[in-house]
Amino acid sequence: MSLAEIWHDLINGLQQTGWLEYIGVFAGIASVWFSRKENILVYPIGLINTIIYVYISIKGSLFGEASVNFYYTVMSIYGWILWAKKDEQKKLILHITYSNKKDWLIQSLFFAGFYIGIYASLVFLKKAFESNTIPWADAFASATAYTGMWLMAKKKIESWYWWIATNIASIPLYFIKGYVFTSFQYIVLSILAFMGLVSWINKTEQKKSLLVAK
Question: Does residue 178 contact residue 21 with C-beta atoms inside 8 Å?
Answer without folding.
Answer: no
